[in-house]
Amino acid sequence: MGSILSLPWFDFTVSGVVIGSIYALMAVGLALIFGVANLINFAHGAVFTVGAYVGWVCAVALGLPLWATVPLVALGGGLVGAGIEYIAIRPLNRQSRIAPLLATIGVGLILDQIVHILFGANPRALPVPMPGWRVSVGQGSIGPIDITIFVTAVIAAAALYAFLFRTRLGMAVRATAQDEDAAKQMGVNIHAVNMAVFAIAGALGAIAGLLVGIYYNAIDPNTSFQIMLKGMVAIVIGGMANVPGAIGGGVILGLIESYGIALFGASYRNLFAFAVLLLMLLVKPNGLFAKGREREAEPMTGTFVIQSMPVRPPGWLLALGVAAAALVPLAGQPYLTQVMTNAFLYALAAISLTLIAGTVGLVSIGHAALLAIGAYASALLTIAGLPVALGLVAAAAITALLGTALAYPAFRLRGHYVAIGTLAIGEIVSLVILNWTSLTNGSMGVFGIPPLTLFGVDFFSTNPSYWLVLGLVVVFALLQTRLLSSHLGRTWRAIREDTVAAETYGVGSNYYKGLAYGFAGFTAGLAGAVTAHQFSYINFDTFNLLTSVLILTIVILGGLGNVTGAIVAAVLVAGLPEMFRVLAEYRMLFYGAALLLLIRFRPRGLLGSG
């Protein structure tokens, strides 16, 4: 107890308030967009990164002072935000909320990749000259950086308040947030309002990027996703569309992280954030500062999923395709065979996600967590002495049980909260793997994983491994197709279309969602386990957010709920880019553009939604 009391709590409080001020800037932008457009902007973190690098160009490359850098950063972020609204959001205003949400994921990937191409993947120093004095307060102190960041955040918040309550456009923004239809009838230009909101949010996010760079004296092109999630946690704490609540939520999150670091260490910082996020979604999803009845969450499927009848290839064509795929190793091209093996592993994961997201309607953005659970379970069990064959089955079963248990709290959520909840679950799994060093070896990962040897037969060489994975894809595709054509499949689709109506007829929606998640978890866990034995090494970052986004892109390309489409899309998305390794630097740019174009021009996927 004495050691805890002796910690410099004032310094931790100052640090929490400073970082919380930055989170608040991110959260205010997200809350504004959600209030007006009813949308979670997953590209907001990328705008943060763009702002950090615009600040680097101004402060370092051009040598401009801070007072001139901040307005230019805000201008750059505002232009990017307005561009996101015009290119990715406005064309989708007639589609359900899942469409623009997924479009912002694609835009975020594109922006992040452009930053990587222009500035490289390594962090850069952002030295901003500051006086060296510090003011002592009790056992702690406050420095000029702390004051600068806090004052900048306060000025930005005051400017936003003045805009919202002292300008005609600001009043139009508030009117649109309260009732969009009534605002239209009063002559409000909704497009202009949306663009203004995205521009303001972009400016605030860009300033936050600059302030983080000043605080840590460095900027990193790989931080956009994490900082976007911090802003998301803040608005969940404060209230999704509550701007003052977003400010309070950002400060609260900053203090929670700072005090958590003081007590448990820096490696647990993000775990605290996502644990708070999941807790808030379950206990008080409307936020701590919500007033009145919040806007009802919309279903994330509906018209986006079933705009056309799915294409059903005849049985002979499917059999011909399987036969042709089985002959790939006979071409004598080991590299091609390995590429197709990886593509079919993605197909196995996509089959599992298309059941959850397409058939049941639970849009999961953290699906890679299931692969990670399966990979680690099989790796640890087989290293401990369990035969590989039993390890694969046991890992798949563990993933089914554990994945369903982790996702169960999200079954009661609706709308955007489902996507946020599954994203939080995915990050929590990754962070638990990172911090549970006694079991997972932490950041060092697990190595020396036994090769694929099943019942005395070696499957670790290129050709046998390929045939094994192809066989698994065929078996699980047939099994899932049979399930979808059964009474169980019809029940899943009924839950997707109208959960309330299904429950009125006596359908236990959580029970059937659990069945779907269990089957999908078994399939995804098996895919992760096979991947682990193929690579012989895994770590907490092997199955990350980009893996989840890639699997989601595959599912949308093939058609949500379409098993055959998931397999075809996996070959196209995961296989074809490998044929052009010279363009590997632009791979994520390709994925982001593909996702954006699909949502815009072919939301039903190549083979239609199931």
What labels describe this entry?
single chain, 610 residues, mainly alpha, ABC transporter involved in vitamin B12 uptake, BtuC, 2 domains, two-stranded antiparallel ribbon, 25 helices, 8 strands
Short description:
It is a multi-pass membrane protein. The chain is mainly alpha-helical. The chain has 25 helices and eight strands.
Provide structural commentary.
With 610 residues, this protein is mainly alpha-helical. It folds into 2 domains: 20-283, ABC transporter involved in vitamin B12 uptake, BtuC; 336-541, no CATH class. Helices cover 70% and strands 3% of the residues. It contains 25 helices and 8 strands. It has helices at 2-5, 9-37, 44-61, 66-89, 98-119, 144-166, 168-178, 180-185, 190-216, 224-238, 243-264, 269-283, 315-326, 334-360, 368-383, 388-407, 416-435, 437-440, 462-484, 487-497, 499-504, 509-535, 545-558, 563-575, 587-601; strands at residues 124-125, 135-137, 140-142, 218-219, 446-447, 453-454, 457-458, 537-538. Strands 1-4 form a two-stranded antiparallel sheet. A hairpin with a 2-residue loop joins strand 2 and strand 3. Helix 2 runs antiparallel to helix 9 (190-216), helix 10 (224-238) runs parallel beside helix 12 and helix 20 packs across helix 22 (509-535). The longest helix is centred in the N-terminal third of the chain and has 29 residues, at 9-37. It is globular.
